[in-house]
Amino acid sequence: IPLDAIEVPNVFTPNGDNRNSQFTVFSTYNPDQEICSFPNLEASMKIYNRWGNLITEDKCFWDGRSENGDDMNDGVYYYIVDLKSQCLDRTEEDKRSGSVTLLR
User: Fold this and answer.
1) Separation of alpha carbons 93 and 104, rounded Å
2) Measured by CB atoms within 10 angstroms of the end CB, which terminus of the chain is less buried, N or C?
3) Structure pTM?
4) Which of 45, 48, 44, 40 is nearest to 87 (CA)?
């Protein structure tokens, strides 16, 4: 999958309605397919609070909880996503960063 087909949302709502309940990068080719299920694509994600404290890492998605399972408060969080795509003999790497708003 080409990395220019990867999008990052800016808001998600883990409120129990099973719609938009996880923060995850997605492919414009198939937005409903979990990014980690694409062959030849590696993704790692780190989520930080506004004070720069690491909330979670090494997941393809964030469900709005801390590493110990506590629900995080509504607000703005910051992410860094490292992507690596291997297609035939070509390797592509990209780093995305920005903010995401959690709304319950």
Assistant:
1) 33
2) C
3) 0.88
4) 40
